[in-house]
Amino acid sequence: MHKDKHKKFNPFAGNNIDENKEIKTEQEPQEEVQQEVHEEPKEEVKEDSTAKELEEMKNQYIRMAADFDNYRKRQAQERESLLKYGAEDTLKKLLPIVDSFDRAKKTFDENSEPEKFKEGFDVIYKQFIEALEKAGLQKIETEGKEFDPNVHEAVMQTPSSEHPDHTVIQELQSGYMIGERVIRPALVNVAVSE
Fold it and tell me: For residue 104, what pLDDT is reported?
């Protein structure tokens, strides 16, 4: 009877089974095998798609790097061209002045009258200023204006009761701008209170 206590009746197995022994069925190993069989193709498919994605990204990176390199080369060529030929338009505007200088020189060689020479000089100077203005150069206004440190450089201060304090009373050297940028400040004499 002592032996019978440890045994139980299993209606499915058709015999008594010892409680201390593990029950193993044939279905468990089959399930493990089936799971392994199903998992392996999933991993292969996943690895294949990952490899394809990686290859596509690599190709995309190579194309982008090549595009950027081409862009950089084009920019360098355009910059070089701009530096080389950027002044072409301005120089074309100055060529009539060179022609005027040539004519004035011939006139001066042939005729030594100071009045004719002065007239030629005035014409050339006017042409030159107009050409510079067409190129974008603007002269900074000075005399009678209030001193502005952004466009004026005070090199002298003169005590004066005739002019308001900090007023430009004399231009010593012209200043010029291109658009909003000062390329040379005007050198001025500024009135200060006595």
Answer: 77
